[in-house]
Design brief:
The structure is a homodimer of 401-residue chains. Chain A is α/β, with parallel strands linked by helices and 401 residues long. Chain A contains seven helices and 28 strands.
């Protein structure tokens, strides 16, 4: 049916090698940068702390003045607002250590007697004093270009007085739903042989979740010229996802159109569902042709579009959220295919105690039955060379985002 | 120092028991509902498919007309646009099966001869025909109230022609930064003894990430009356997070203020860093008092604020993103405390092959050193009764979001 069935991992590697991360940069206020990717190295412009600070509540002293003090032999110091021989200054955690002082005696090691304080512990120079630049030294590399910024990183930037930062632009991902059977959502009730367009909506939401900016086009009918025009219209984007028209029926023109405009790398992939997936590029832009059948389309998105968007966005691989569980019914794999079996977690609180967590497979028939995904908590991925997984075996469930 | 040190898990359970999920509902377009929580059960208003549809490209037939056909004995049918005895209608996958037909013969089992088609395979009634409601039956429960909506769920809603859905309102979380040493970001350069306010910004971003709507108040100085006023000002929110003033120094008024306005459940928790954390509620609203020291504050957010926000938002527990790795240096735990050690993943591609993944601990000293978090990829959490983890042991690294 298809030119050939390319092994899933090979197809992915082959495809991802053609994807080049976007090089556009924008400057944003740090408060808008959660999840964004730093577009440059950031070095500290100041020392943190920028003054010598007390690490404890207590009294700043000259360490030499406390020599010889002990639990039975306190040294008596005068409480003052500057440091001289025999004086001390009250400090609390974080407050500046006054000039002349080189240590802080903890409050617990003192007893205040009017204007005087008894010090019951001898301190060494630098004790309980945070030196200038102790946390972050001026000039130190704080954020490396390519780092995905988290709230804690943004707080570090803020602590250095940095209010804006260069980040990579999010990749623009055009989504082209194709199919003469499709009715735009909210327009009219589908007649016989028609369905609402939903893959475009689903894909848009996944693109956004995975770090891209979706640009959803109107439905294109099954006409090679119209499909070609649509692809050319979005030549300014960083990636194109086309839904439908990838099979080998009379109305399946999409892979041929991609080939006519650029390069078709793969048509027919060893993923189940999702075999009709095609991958290629047009003008150096990666193109994912996802099957119109929603479940197959979704698997193609997860397996190919997600890593491509993340690579475009400079976001490194990240582990899926996985739950380890025991299978309560056998699942069959499809030999030669990486099988994405939809499963439901059936026991109470699955995440807190993975060993008590059981999953059962949902009907794997029907790549068109999106409700089987909606009912599923995750996928169990069965490798190509495995016939199936028996009841009672432990499996990793990749949670569906 | 503190009233007592409550065990971390006990403190969390005790605190979370007081948290009641929000009951406000809003109606939103489905396209805006990724990650939102369904506020009601949704039942299908229509059958999917709403017509009998072909499951294959081929010819719709009366099954009885194909009786007796085989690879050497084709039955000849006339290609027509309606079904009668001896006629058939060309169909493709998804198109309506015309009245009178009860099966579809696959294209592969036919040969077209002008206006006639040779059928080489006998089909049973219902073969390759998707019945009305096969995927989703009208009235069937599609989305259960409390389900966190994913793009694939939203696509199912769209396929049913549903354009709006009731979702639970996001919880409003007020954030009150306190401390006379704090300088508002972007106002002026901090002098000696001063730092930029950053916990409020960090907390706002985490609140948003975890499903809440942050409301960040201006800095409140260390004055019990001012803190009280600030808490009363946000009485309309669903939760309050107060940063700073939770320790036992002269300027630490926050726990006492919470107690005066409501109930202080816990002050002093067995997490390290983060011991000065206090938990309570005011007017049935949960209150997390996080230490002002940023790392301690962040651990308190992760351990207490996150599950509370998620419970308020009706979002069930979800597993962290975890990487299993080998420790390349010993980490010490603090006896009696759940220790959150910051670690950095040091080898190349950690996620694709967990067994080759090595981590080393970052300096655990200094709860004030936020850069130790920014440099960290995740936490290794050392239980209360464990002295430390040796070099070479396998650990779970909880990635910092």
């Amino acid at each position: 049916m298809f030119r050939k069935r390319t092994n899933a991992d090979e197809a992915k590697d082959f495809f991802l090698r053609t994807v080049r991360p976007v090089d556009g940069i924008e400057v944003l206020p740090i408060g808008d940068c959660d999840g964004r990717v730093a577009g440059e190295d950031v070095n500290a412009g100041v020392d943190v702390p920028h003054y010598r600070r007390a690490a404890m509540d207590g009294f700043a002293v000259r360490a030499s003045d406390t020599m010889g003090s002990g639990s039975n032999s306190p040294v008596l110091l005068k409480i003052d607002n500057k440091i001289e021989k025999g004086t001390c200054v009250r400090v609390h955690t974080g407050s500046p250590v006054p000039d002349g002082a080189d240590a802080v005696v903890m409050l617990e090691d003192t007893v205040v007697r009017g204007e005087m304080v008894e010090v019951f512990s001898q301190v060494h120079p630098f004790k309980n004093v945070g030196e200038i630049g102790e946390d972050i030294r001026k000039g130190e590399l704080i954020i490396t270009g390519g780092h995905v910024l988290r709230p804690c990183d943004i707080a570090v930037l803020a602590s250095l007085g940095i209010e804006k930062i260069k980040v990579f632009k999010k990749p623009l991902v055009a989504i082209i739903p194709t199919g003469e059977e499709l009715v735009p959502r909210g327009s009219r009730t589908p007649g016989e042989g028609e369905v609402y367009e939903t893959n475009g909506l689903m894909t848009s939401l996944y693109v956004r979740k995975w770090g891209g900016v979706p640009i959803l086009l109107d439905i294109v009918t099954d006409d090679p010229e119209k499909i070609k025009e649509a692809i050319q219209r979005v030549s300014g984007t960083d990636m194109i996802i086309i839904s439908g028209g990838t099979s080998v029926g009379k109305r399946d023109y999409v892979p041929a159109v991609v080939e006519s405009l650029g390069t078709l790398l793969v048509h027919g992939v060893g993923i189940s569902p999702g075999k009709p997936t095609a991958l290629g590029f047009v003008n150096v832009k990666p193109v994912v042709c996802m099957p119109g059948y929603p479940v197959a389309g979704m698997v193609a998105l997860y397996y190919f579009a997600r890593p491509a968007i993340r690579k475009l966005a400079h976001i490194s691989d990240e582990p899926d959220r996985v739950v380890r569980a025991v299978l309560s019914e056998k699942i069959a794999g499809r030999t030669g295919y990486k099988t994405f079996a939809r499963v439901k977690i059936e026991t109470g609180t699955p995440y807190s105690n993975m060993w008590s967590c059981k999953v059962f497979p949902l009907s794997t028939s029907g790549a068109g039955i999106l409700s089987s995904v909606s009912k599923a908590d995750g996928f169990v991925i069965i490798p190509e060379n495995v016939e199936g997984i028996d009841k009672g075996e432990e499996v990793d469930v990749v949670l569906i985002e």
